[in-house]
Amino acid sequence: MKKTLSIVICSITIFSMVGLTGCKNKDTISSGDKEKQIALSKEKENALDLNIYFGSSNNSTDLSKEQRVIKKDELLGETIINEIIKGPGVKSNLNPVLPKDTKLLSFSIKDNTAYVNFSKEANISMNAYKEETCLKSIIFSLTELPSIQKVKIFIDNKDTNIWGNNFNLTSPLGKDTISNTKKK
């Protein structure tokens, strides 16, 4: 009886130790997984996962999907620029800053700088006041996004001889640097 009781107590002790040790390791693994999940969720907060469908072959109507990840701020930045191109509302007393036939060729954000490339239709002659208004409109609107502090503007992939050539646009501009780039 004593021997059986000793075996039962030893067994319970061993199983308890193994069980507690197993729980400790599981908690550590869970914590590590939680940290990874938190990091991934923060990364995904600024991105959209989209499925885009394309034709699978030339002779069928079958579709196949391709997964794309799009950064939300880049999508918002493109929308902001397209709204600037579209101009103020019909009932507004405000003035457009870009010609209506302007197109956005490309938009990207890297290192807190937005890179905006307009079509050649945007390159109209502007006096210094109109050019400054146009620059401020673009820069002030885009820097509303937390990921953008400066803006680099191109027209048809060029950054010189743009608009009235009243400002040096060869470097990215921020809200506080527009006035400093005015050519004398």
TrEMBL record:
SMART domains: Germane. PROSITE patterns: PROKAR_LIPOPROTEIN. It comes from the Bacteria. It holds the Pfam family Germane. Residues 77-164 form the GerMN domain. This is GerMN domain-containing protein. It comes from Clostridium carboxidivorans P7.
